Amino acid sequence: MPRLVMKFGGTSVANLERIRSVARHVKREIDAGHEIAVVVSAMAGATDQLVGWCREAAPLHDAREYDAVVSTGEQVTAGLLAITLEGMGVNARSWQGWQLPILTSNAHAAARILDVNGAELLKRFQERHEVAVIAGFQGLHKETGRITTLGRGGSDTSAVAIAAAIAAERCDIYTDVDGVYTTDPRVVQRARRLDRVAYEEMLELASLGAKVMQVRSVELGMVHNVRIFVRSSFEKPEDIDPRGIPPGTLICGEEEIVEQQVVTGIAFSKDEAQISIRRVQDKPGIAAAIFGPLAEANINVDMIVQNVSADGATTDLTFTVPAADYQRATEVLIKVKDRVGYERVDGANDVAKVSVIGIGMRSHAGVAAQAFKALAEKGINIRAITTSEIKFSLLIEANYTELAVRTLHSLYDLDK
Ligand code: ADP
Ligand code: ASP
Ligand code: MG
Question: Residue 58: how many CB atoms within 10 A of its CB?
Fold first, then answer.
């Protein structure tokens, strides 16, 4: 029998009414002859509240206990959905990460899935025609026996890993938008839904700010060739023909995309901070002396720009770090001041990174140059630039984010 994974995010299970609607989506697919594993998130807002409680209890807390707390949101929804399905006459049972088990590394709060036991699910599909309702976001570190979580948005990753483990025909990601758009449809009304997007592009979109899919889930999908279909849970379940093709976006291999545009989408992130080190000595070993200690402190440095200072003898070094690490990064730099030798550190939290993504850029020159011109015409100053084969990113003042995204969206013909 064809097998499907159906994943429902927080807004899709926000209350009992929404959970009943989810159960009807599941029943539709069961009635169409599918074997189903469902993966659920916590109710909308639940994880934020749990995270908030941990911070309130103690700003610096043990990550193992944080995981014990924040994993509970998914336990609730998995149980409630199983109860609801049973009430509708559908055989179902809930599974927590440790029960299946879903084995992970011990990087608490950001654990990676190592192995998923799909055999028990397959056995129960066959013997009991039972729907598996699995708590997303959580797993087990085998050696310590402790519960882990996969990082925010991690239920997407649970779903794709389970789809790979049971060789599902498709992994449906049901959410509050009906697919992946050229940019966040809540910010740009003219954003267009993409019928298909390549894994590599989705990887860039996700890691550069489009939180519709967790980055790690796309990586896993790419490695195991899982067909991921992003669609809406807000349509009436009974209006959907399980054999038809509903509105949505298929994340798939590049070779399956027939009409390739130069630019596929635009992502943005305001969770950036800029640090500029002024008048650094211009001599070998300085970059290592600065970026080494930052790496040791586990701070991810992203865009880096170096230019000669006004005096010609020293250099200015500008780079970005995640906004959450801004304070820590500044402290690290102050500690190494004597060793490095610089005049001062300037910083700004009010910056944003806007990124343009498209596989078509591999074979087209001048795509970024068009952006520089269009943004200049709007009076938007670019503070730093990075490029790679299928994307470029621009650092700008945060106030201009929406204007920049809309400008680039029109420039590359993405408006609907
Ligand atoms: P869920 O709770 O279902 O996991 P998320 O909130 O994690 O849902 O992801 C869905 C949200 O992602 C949408 O509401 C939308 O605002 C946002 N989003 C950002 N970029 C995009 C994009 N390019 N396409 C679609 N949605 C996007
Ligand atoms: N509930 C978790 C979160 O809010 C995981 C998820 O929803 O994917 O991050
Ligand atoms: Mg999500």
Answer: 9
pLDDT in tens, 213-234: 999 999 999 999 999 999 999 9
Q: Which fold has domain 265-411?
A: VC0802-like (3.30.2130)
- Which pLDDT belongs to residue 88? 97
The CATH code of the domain at 3-255 is 3.40.1160.10
Whether the bond into 101 is cis, omega within 30 of 0: yes
Residues of the chain where predicted confidence (pLDDT) is lower than 50: none
**What H or E segment, with its residue span, contains residue 392?**
strand 391-397
Distances (CA, A) of 111 to 102, 153, 182, 290, 328: 11, 12, 30, 28, 23
Q: In which residue ranges of the chain is CATH 3.40.1160.10 found?
A: 3-255
Strands 170-175 and 3-8: parallel
Tokens of 394: 């621009």
The pLDDT of residue 311 is: 75
Q: What is the pLDDT of residue 91?
A: 97
Quick check: CB of 152 below 6 Å from ligand 2? yes
List b or e across 168-189, with b for residues whose CB sees 16 or more CB atoms inside 10 angstroms.
bebbbbbbebbbbbbbbbeebe
145 half-sphere exposure, CB direction, 13 A CA radius = 0
Question: Which pLDDT value is given to residue 313?
Answer: 83
181 Cβ below 6 A of ligand 2: no
Backbone angles phi, psi at 134, to 5 degrees: -110, 130
Pocket of ligand 1 (CB under 6 A): 9-12, 41, 153, 175-177, 180-181, 183-186, 205, 210-212, 265
pLDDT at position 283 = 85
The closest ligand to the CA of 230 turns out to be: 1
Q: What is the pTM of this model?
A: 0.94
CA of 211 from ligand 1 middle (Å) equals 5
